[in-house]
């Protein structure tokens, strides 16, 4: 008879973890007599299932610098057409008002816009913009001034302010094996780095993850976790490993059990959002999800590449919103796009665009005040960049205060005017 793998024997909640301790299964008793006191308190609390009406933020990074002028197009602006003789979009435009249009590849987003579920935040940027991919991404993710280096991200500081020192929150996380945030990819985004340590889980866009039933890996895990602890430090390490494996198993099962009726496109972004939707439907307590779509650094031959990227983005976001609606979750989830910068007003000699400054952002959800927010782009024949009129930290402040109900100044370090898009 086949023996169940270690991962198949893992408890799925803290309550099950404790129940198994006296029944020959893996549990706190496996760690010997040196359980750290704070873990014992968390285990004894037997915290309840997390609330089902929590608010959730999904961030989509358009990595490389999205060209805002060919995303939200000023179709009647002669300067736009003169500066972009080959790149200006003239046909198939999806009108937003009497002056601006959406890129022709964004039919699905245009429908959401017309239905009031999509907002467009115009001319978003920051003072003294930096043209380096790395540095500008760092500024956006840390919400710092352009001349200030910060090691913590804006969402990491949100976790610091709402989770650190809160035993009840820590106990709920222990009880449900829910990470504070989930990101797709191998590297933790800087936006999720806190001054304190928080549980953040990395997810693959496709396929299984973890040991995948590998007998040798499972055997190694079991030896590590069942070896009697000799001190509190070893017990803590065993406990940490158990939490990682329990979380991994719970997330894998949530993804495999999800039976959505929505047909997601077969691109990486859409498949990542499909997994995120499955986790949201599974009642994880996780409040933040982060996914990145690359390819927006369009220095050459931009026209077709940019159309493909925006088409993938549009179809993926629309499928995600449809999935959330089908499961009654669309009023809980706010989806926001961002990019490290826009592109310059004029096309270059390679039929592409170079690093610029301000650009539009999309925000999606039932709670969104749909439509255009902010001022239309100002295009000058003498200026290389589109000047920003909305500081990106005003958007963060709006999310922190109106969506997460926390004091944005505690997170951002200063007060920023809110934008009424929620």
Word description of this protein:
The chain has 422 residues and is an alpha/beta fold. The protein has one domain: Alkaline Phosphatase, subunit A (3-Layer(aba) Sandwich), CATH 3.40.720. Helix content is 37%, strand content 13%. It is built from 14 helices and 12 strands. The strands form 2 sheets. Strands 1, 5, 6, 7, 8, 9, 10, 11 and 12 form a 9-stranded mixed sheet that branches. A 3-stranded antiparallel sheet has the order 2-4-3, with no helix packed on it. The protein is globular and about 75 Å long. The N terminus is likely disordered.
Low-confidence stretches: 1-50, 164-176
Question: Gyration radius, to the nearest Å?
Answer: 23 Å
Q: Residue share in helices?
A: 25-40%
At the first level of CATH, what is the class?
A: Alpha Beta
What is the assembly state of the chains in this entry?
single chain
Percent of residues in beta strands?
A: 5-15%
Describe the sheet with the most strands.
9 strands, mixed
The CATH architecture can be named as 3-Layer(aba) Sandwich
Distance between the termini: 56 Å
Task: Please state the average pLDDT score.
Answer: 84
Count of helical stretches: 14
Q: Please identify the structural class as seen in this structure.
A: alpha/beta
N-to-C order of helices and strands: HHHEEHEEHEHHHEEHHHEHEEEEHH
CATH level 3 topology = Alkaline Phosphatase, subunit A
Number of strands: 12
